[in-house]
Write a structure and sequence with these properties.
The protein is mostly helical. It is about 55% helix and about 10% strand. The termini are far apart.
Length: about 110
């Protein structure tokens, strides 16, 4: 089975252990929209590796005294930067893989 960093893997108790946060804090961050774990049958939260990293970032920012609105803004800006990097990489790949060949045969002059 293929998994990436967005595949939901961790129950709330495991995500809490991985982040050092209390499960109730994770629920609160979910309610505030700072993280959006997937739900199983609309009930249990499942967190991906990306969610865990995001929770760590929220925890770090909160510990530094950043307000909830500030955290939202920082996360939005980080997502925007990531999207722009992805676009830039796609452009660079496209530019590197595309070659333009011009062929312009010269006519032979008759002597």
């Amino acid at each position: 089975m293929y998994t990436d960093d967005t595949t939901p893997l961790y129950a709330i108790s495991v995500a809490a252990q991985l982040t050092g946060l209390h499960p109730q804090t994770l629920r609160q961050y979910d309610r505030l929209g700072l993280v959006s774990p997937q739900r199983t049958n609309g009930r249990n939260r499942l967190y991906s590796a990306r969610d865990v990293e995001r929770l760590r970032e929220v925890s770090r920012l909160s510990a530094e005294g950043v307000s909830i609105e500030g955290i939202r803004r920082v996360l939005a800006l980080q997502e925007e930067v990531e999207a722009l990097r992805d676009q830039l990489q796609a452009y660079a790949r496209e530019k590197a893989s595309t070659s333009l060949v011009l062929w312009n045969p010269q006519r032979r002059r008759r002597a």
